[in-house]
Amino acid sequence: MPGSRxxxxxxxxxxxxxxxxxxxxxxxxTNVSDFEQFYNRGGGSIEHVQCIFSxxxxxxxxxxxxxxxxxxxxxxxxxxxxxxxxxxxxVDKYATxxxxxxxxxxxxxxxxxxxxxxxxxxxxxxxxxxxxxxxVWLDQNGYPVHLRVSTLSQLVKLxxxxxxxxxIADRDHMEAxxxxxxxxxxxxxxxFLRYMPLGVYFGNEFLAEHPGFLPRFNxxxxxxxxxxxxxxxxxxxxxxYWLTPQVTQWLxxxxxxxxxxxxxxRRADWPPHKRDLLDEEWREAFQTGNEDDVARLLDxxxxxxxxxxxxxxxxxxTELILTDRQGLNVAVSDMTSDFWQGDESKFTQALGLEPxxxxxxxxxxxxxxxxxxxxVSRPVYHPESGEPLGVIIVGVNVEKALSRSLKGx
Length: 409
Known about the structure:
- The protein folds into 3 domains: 24-102 and 197-221, D-Maltodextrin-Binding Protein, domain 2 (3-Layer(aba) Sandwich); 104-196, Periplasmic binding protein-like II (D-Maltodextrin-Binding Protein, domain 2); 233-406, Beta-Lactamase (2-Layer Sandwich), CATH 3.30.450.
- Helices cover 37% and strands 24% of the residues.
- It has 14 helices and 15 strands.
- It has helices spanning 32-41, 45-56, 67-75, 133-140, 152-161, 171-181, 204-209, 213-221, 233-253, 256-267, 272-288, 300-312, 345-348, 398-406; strands at residues 24-30, 58-64, 81-85, 95-97, 102-111, 126-129, 145-149, 166-170, 188-203, 317-323, 329-332, 359-360, 364-366, 371-381, 388-397.
- Strand 6, helix 4 and strand 7 (145-149) form a beta-alpha-beta unit.
- Helix 2 packs antiparallel against helix 8 and helix 9 (233-253) crosses helix 14 (398-406).
């Protein structure tokens, strides 16, 4: 839908193949509205798809068609896949969904003069755009849809006029539509629902004929992406509100600054090659699962405390890392892929922050756990001099955190 924010951007030329003597055609179907969305968006989307398919040796040919026909064509093998799609138990019977190509940010919207809808099911009159991902999701999850219309503008007008009570929309798409209609924030309320990953469904018949295609496709999705999915300022403020007091209280109570200062002194004369050797040893231990091999590099008592904090968060916190001034791990709640964080933005951009500031990384999606995570980091300061001693990095289950914050819990 127009205006949605991208986790990974996708776009293609309509009925155009990328010329290459070695490229093999792959037939893709897409809904008219979705096609127009990608075709008209620009901003490098065509380059992203070219990047993915050119690395695989395939040339996409895209046909516009209604969703029902796209699904039917894939189920019968006449089309190799369709995009962009949300996960569907029904489609899973004959096709397999790729890694997320983009990420939409869904909110419930309702008029400012009615009570907050609990979950939309009750007596609420729900609106939806015909054939949209939101409509599919509502149907899949048992929400009765009162009216189906063609555009988001129509939904907004129906809400303002009182003909429907609520609907779901991508936040950025909604903001653009509200601006076009000159609808001010006093006319509506909203509540975060979830992030929705969208990908390409490839038919199982096509995948059987091309073994190894999907893993290779998924591998190229992230390297070919032009940018990550960044949280909005108000969403960052919500997480800042509840996270900062907890982190500050914990750092002071556990005397973390003194522990990190001791590690800084102990590691002060380490040459870069020693750091690199230890980082390589750590990576090997991570890949083999032999955490005991590198346990000597960490403060075990502090790592135990980090694990307890993660458990006590009841799913809000997914990871905790403490580093020294160089970005080397001092304590971790779970085994990390690297010992040295010093070349990553969650460390480099956090170390110079002023007190009270937080560094937010991009939202990432873990396919194995189906969780959306954001790394939030800030310096650990010397209690007297105020000098930064290291960095604390907190992995946050962003959906759970926003649901908690925006519901006022």
